[in-house]
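Hi P.,

Sorry for the delay on this. The queue was packed all week, but I finally got your sequence through. Input first:
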Amino acid sequence: MPIITNLDVMLAKRKMTSKELAERIGITMANLSVLKSGKAKAVRFTTLEAICRELNCQPGDLFEFQAGEFDAESE
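Then the structure:
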């Protein structure tokens, strides 16, 4: 998938654990894990807003596009 998630990087920069972020934004650890692993098919704007608020960042800090990184499932 050509969308890369940098959620782990932002968590490390903010010295926050995944568990703490999940509790603050009101999602399960399982859902946060799916987001962090890049396996999520979609992200709700309300969830994205909450993550950005808690990590004091922009959506572009969390995700990046890498052209040409297609896998067999996306074709």
